[in-house]
Amino acid sequence: MPGPIKTLVEKERVIAIIRGLYGTPLLRLAEALSQGGIRLLEVTFDQSDPACIKKTPEAIGALREAYGETMFFGAGTVLSAAQAEEAAEAGAEFIISPDTNPEVIRKTKDLGLISIPAGMTPTEILKAHNLGADYVKIFPAARLGLSWLKDVRGPINHVKLIAVGGIGEENLAAFLKGGCTAVGIGGAITDKALIAAGRFEELSRRAATFKKIAEAI
Questions:
Q1: How far apart are CA 214 and CA 28, in angstroms?
Q2: Cβ neighbours of residue 169 closer than 8 Å, sequence gap 6 or more
Q3: 167-212 pLDDT, tens digit each
């Protein structure tokens, strides 16, 4: 499994980040993003919700059943090995975390999934890489900035980075050109106001715009 998904991450280069959305709205959003050309979706665990250990895997399972032939799904904000295991059982193919947790990285790799923990300092990034992470999420990417990215990549350009946090139409290309393998995009293509208003065509348009930018790099 990791081989083909890694190839897909590096080809597609855009991961949509979905937070706090379930049921029909989630499925409609996935359809809209698919129509815009997005194939990688991250469904996050809402750690403030005690039921997240049940709700997030159920959401991933529903997405796999509806769009599993054309899209690929992972779990985000994974803070424990148990959450990684629940996500894997539901069909997740990659695990994304907001930190560098050795337990989660090891469990993810044991499960045969793609490991994407987060790091902000060179020490954290290298720790994640040396523990076996396939990619390291840099967060919050936009606040850290492109100058930071250039400086950090100088000595550790062998680590594949995914930029997350504040990525939009205005800076997506710059982060990819700056050496990031891929980006994660949240609110810009999962806007809950647009979802509530039923404006899924606008979300498809935005998804297509991000897809076009990524393909041009």
A1: 23
A2: 188, 209, 210, 213
A3: 999 999 999 999 999 999 999 999 999 999 999 999 999 999 999 9
Residue in 105, 99, 153, 112 with CA at minimum distance from that of residue 133: 105
CATH of the domain at 10: 3.20.20.70
Rounded Cα–Cα distance for residues 147 and 206 (Å): 27
42, 85, 86, 93: which is the annotated catalytic residue? 42
Domain span at residue 185?
2-215
Global pTM reads: 0.96
What residue has token string 């989630």? 26
| Catalytic option among 107, 109, 137, 211 | 137
- How confident is the model over 120-173, as pLDDT tens digits? 999 999 999 999 999 999 999 999 999 999 999 999 999 999 999 999 999 999
Give the count of domains, the chain: 1
Tens digit of each residue's pLDDT (9 = 90 or more) over 19-77: 999 999 999 999 999 999 999 999 999 999 999 999 999 999 999 999 999 999 999 99
Q: Is residue 137 annotated as a catalytic residue, yes or no?
A: yes
160 catalytic? Reply is: no
